[in-house]
Amino acid sequence: MRARIRVIASDTLEPVVGASFQTILIGPDGGDGGFHEYTTDENGGLLTTKYLFPGRYQIYIKPPIGSRYAVTQFHEPETYLVVRGDGTYSPKEFKMAVTGSQ
Predict the structure, then answer these.
(1) Among 20, 49, 81, 84, who pairs with 57 as Cys (CB 3.0-4.6 Å)?
(2) pLDDT of residue 28
(3) Integer Cα distance of 19 and 86 in angstroms
(4) CATH number of residue 85's parent domain
(5) How big, in percent rounded to 5, are the helix, strand and coil portions of the chain?
(6) Whole-structure pTM value
(7) What domain of life is recorded for the organism (predicted)?
């Protein structure tokens, strides 16, 4: 399954351009099941180019160099990207933390 995901600023909800979006599959025993990295486009969006298997994914988003954004992690069960067997997934949008104006 390929997913369309959007990264937005937590304060203004504007798109975050050029962020590194990383997915890590959490295996049934809590172990790592794979890692992929994508870059957000001019709309803060990305389309996963690797097949995402059904399961739970931890998300790490690294900001573009020199931006006002902070590394943002989604590594708790309630914040995972969840891919279901029927091809649906949630959430479709992630809010990136802000450190302040640069």
Answers:
(1) 81
(2) 61
(3) 28
(4) 2.60.40
(5) 5, 45, 50
(6) 0.89
(7) Bacteria
Decide if 60 contacts 96 (C-beta within 8 A): no
Whether residue 102 lies inside any domain: the answer is: no
Instruction: Identify the domain containing residue 23 by its residue range.
Output: 4-96
Determine the Cα angle at 21 with ends 99 and 15, to 5°.
60
Look at the chain and report how many structural domains it folds into: 1
Assigned domain for 45 exists: yes
The confidence score (pLDDT) of residue 49 equals 81
Q: Are 10 and 74 in contact (CB under 8 A)?
A: no
Q: Is the dihedral of CA 33, 6, 87, 89 positive or negative?
A: positive
**Cβ contact 8:43 at 8 Å:** no
Interacting residues of 42 by C-beta distance below 8 A, sequence separation 6+: 15, 17
Token digits for 92? 């479709």
